[in-house]
VWFA domain-containing protein
Amino acid sequence: MTRWMASNLRLLLLAALLVEVSSDVSIDGAGVEEWAAAFGSELYELSLKYSGAEFIRQEYERRDDVHVERVNGIKVVQEMATKMENMLENKVLAVKKLRDKVEEAHEMYDYNPDIQFEYFNSNLVNTNTTGRNDRDLHLRKTFDLTPNEHFNDIPVNIINSTVQVAANVYNFGTEVLNGIAETEVLNEVFQENYERDPTLTWQYFGHNTGFFRNYPGIEWEPDSRGLDLYDCRKRGWYISSATSPKDVVILVDTSGSMTGSRHEVAKHTVNTIMSTLGDDDFFNVISFGDTTSFIRSCFNGTLVQANADNKNLIKQGLKQMPKPQKIADFELALVEAFELLESFQKKVRKFNNTGLGANCNQAIMLITDGAHETYEEVFDKYNEDRHVRVFTYLIGADIKDDPNVKWMSCNNKGYYTRIGAFADVEENASKYIHVLSRPMVIEQDHITVWTNVYMDTLGLQLMTTVSQPVFNKKESNREQGILLGVAGVDVPVKELLKLTPAYKLGVNGYPFAITNNGYILYHPDLRPRDENGELKPNYNSVDLAEVELSDIDEQEYERTSLELVQNKLRTAMVDRETGYMNMTVRMHSKDMKRLHFRLNHYYYTDLAGTPFSLGIVLSDRAAGDSQLIGLETFTVPSGNGSEGAVGDLCLLKEGLENLFNDTEAAVLANWIYCNLNNTEGMTMTRPQALEKYLRLAMENSGYLSAKCDPELINHVIFDAKVTQPIVSYWEGIYEAPSRTPPMLSNETLARQALYQALCDNETMPTEPQTTAVYANSTDFLITNPTDGWLSVQPTTSPSVNQTTSNATDIPMTLNLTSPAFFGVTQEEQMTTQKDDVVTTNAPEMTTNDGSLWDGVILSFVGTMGGLTRIFPNPYATQKSKFAEEFPNTIEEEYYQRAAETSTQKFIYSVPLQGQEDGYTADGSEYLVTASAPVLVTKDGKRSIAAAIGLQMLSDFLKDMFLETTTMHRQDCNSVAFDCELTCYNESVGCYLLDEHGYIVMSKEQQEIGMHFASLTEYARVFDRMLDTGVYVEIKQIDYQAMCQETVMHISAASHLLDPLISISTFLMGFTKQVILLLSQVGLYYSWEVSYAEGTVVTEEVISTPCDKEMTYYSANSDRLPQTSFIQKQCEDCKKSYSMDAVPHSNLILLIVDKDCTCDILRPKHLEPVKVEYNSSRWCQRLRTQVHRRRPEPCHSQHPLENSTDCGRGSWLCPSLPWILLMLLVKSILTYVSSRT
């Protein structure tokens, strides 16, 4: 009778007899230690047997054509940087071509005031008419669109561009149509650029009138609300190209006349102005009545960087701004603004090396409904040379132009604009941008600007943009400094990542890049969306010091402290240095469930021609900073690199057979082996492309296409050769039925014959060459090159026990009793051989037809080169989706966690609660995934070559463990349940916990994947574990968290509900106009007007950026074994438990008394908790300016500038009776609507 059958019979007897057990269970520590040792040995043997870990390790180590070398990280990062610089320079060249074409077309274009022009409007193409009076009928054209993989399968037209017109701009406006007509010539340039550089994505031109020409052409998608609010002139790439950095003070009038809608329009204007400010700008907002007040008290007396966090804080402050009252003291407000700019400029000069301030343009934005004088004395005192530009915004539809407000702008090189209602804000608030662009336009300096990372509106995810301003070069317009618009090209982050392939950085290695402000351009821990899939407001201003967290108690240091190692790394990269440093960091897993401590090696350098710096990380774990170097199939000629790689035909033939003869068992990572053009990308996968180009090389004398990456291909061919014999091993282990060779077509047979003939006819070089084929972490290092294997692998795979004198190709006899076997003694290795196949004492399961099945459903090996070999158990009734879920080897968790260990033990894991991967194909049962690193040692140096493992059913692991608790007790017979302390006893809780406290095995299936600390009944047990140091609690701050907050809104919405109040509001405005008139003729001296205003206070729940504290746990094996009990909080009993480490694994065995009831202790809180800072500490952190580098150059003034065009304020003013009537009607309708 097998042990499996005995186990099931015992369970049946237990259920039938309903054996009652005592609640006073005594946990025997010595017995638990025995169980842990026995179970660990048994589990280890089973894992070794079915994975083939020792077999594959010997395959690597026995080869005399490989060795281990350290990686030159500086060389690697500089090579990657050079490739990036070349790619980015091509994008700049594309922008220059667009820019030149528009400027040339504008010089030659004759303006047509009577123009009628049809174009492809991206909002209207392929739409139906709205009826007989459809004014957009002529724009509702048919437009051919085809999904394109290069554009994330978005339907595009690569022949024509389309035009999107901002919502507040008329589709048939004369200025708009002339601009569209003159830029039609861009279609030709768009296509030429795309043909020259197929990696290009969106190319576009944004015009100063508000239209946006985009290539390739698309149908514009509205936002989630069905609205199109996109205005190219408000985008960061447009504004950054149009203006130099600026220091800005925004003054908001909150006097009594700014009531009702004026107050709300003023706040909206501030928010709109803030949206035009970028990371290189500095600003603050001050409200004023009879006194001045900073919107955020923490920002008193300074300017702060206009990043997302600071702008969001100001927005929240505006919502809580007090109601308008009293008379505005303009002199006080203007003096405050000028002195703030002056004092800040002094601070900038003092701390110039830190990058504080914009140190370029200075501006004051004044938002008011009128001023009773010009305050010329203030401007003469503080702004005699007009170095500070003043922009004024006159608020209110019911008031006429104010010459005093206009004078402030026109006499200070600014711009004056009227904002009558909400609808006017978007169009008018940003008019200052074209004023600030004048010096640059007159100078004719086409600066190249790179944006921070942002989410693409059109669906290509994260990207950066390179853009340049486009000028009106007509000599007659030079002094006016007219900016035609901005040309731009998008660069998706994924295109940059293609130049930092994973195989060059190794397991747990990764690339990252930052901007001149220290913000992340890309990083594996950048999380732009919240848990609901919404974009975080500050996703593009995440600092490097917020994701690279050194292993230092953060309570001792501020995040911005220069003492933190991550800030030293950040400073070096911001300063564009090339260098190297080590740092022990805390790295959480992708799902934020686990925390790892790693010693990372950082290498960094600048990206010339951009504001970016590139860094790479090589992990120290499992010798991640070293590489395994072997033979190459393709050799890259030395020199200028103009010639392509040339391959050995025999090795290439063998590689094709190893990779593609059994496509079900060999899975290739979704990496870029060969760059595909657009047509290829739509018709084949990347692995299919690899096969295509390898066969082309075979038929072209070994010459590999320049599209392909010979280093990566050498990796994967080498891995395929070394891992090929493992398939025969697995066939033997599983006693798999012999596979019938597939019937080959005549075409395939002819191809094989051709390949064999090409191999036989190849002239082998007399001097062998070798080079790096297999790089564990980075690039290949070429040493003593060879060209060819010592022999060719036979066409039939050898059996598992086959021996040969050829140490290059055929596997050795596997001796599992060798003391060198993973460092395990012969006593620990309870293995036998049966029918020339390695077997163990692992528990056996049999299917209905009597074939062997041990509950293991597949074996796998994943290599550094991106190859995964999978062998499903032919007798398993359940299937796994391993190939679909984990195709990318070193980027997958099973590989990364295996690499965390420096010993050749197995890491066992189950899907944690909430995870979707790691179940059987039908989703009915948990799978336990076991993986171990294949560590190869050569000449005393070690490197990780692969990760190997298996998947088994969780129920099988449970039954295997339950068996262990009976087989190793003398008082338990082989069938019946007649002993107390076993895991079959319902009074005994049995668990396998992993190194982070997650439950891998439990008698209760619903507990699998949970954290043990979350189980209420064992809360006191886990608390004791923490007290005794078995698990250590670790706190980590998440600086990218989002919190739900309730904010109060103070508004004057009630005015719209009462017609009398609406009329009184108008009368108050009229009264103020009288006051202003009197003041202008000298008849007004002092008159304080008090305005009574009813307010409405509302609450709103919003998501805002915050810091959250995460709680993690890590096992301390030095404190095991441990046996203890809890008595004080328990009811006349001792709740005993015992635990010990399971050898050769990451598991901890825990046996605990379930019946002893103790006082309920609240389980450990595993959910992240918002960090509540005290106000002074939080304020100090906000005010601290971290190190940054200012962009260059600066264009703030030009002697030829003509500033007479400073805005117009004409406004049609209806009669007083008409205004009163309209206000009354509107108020009544609103009142009735609110009632219904």
Summary: The chain has a mean pLDDT of 82. Residues 146 and 913 are 40 Å apart (CA to CA). The longest helix spans residues 73-108.
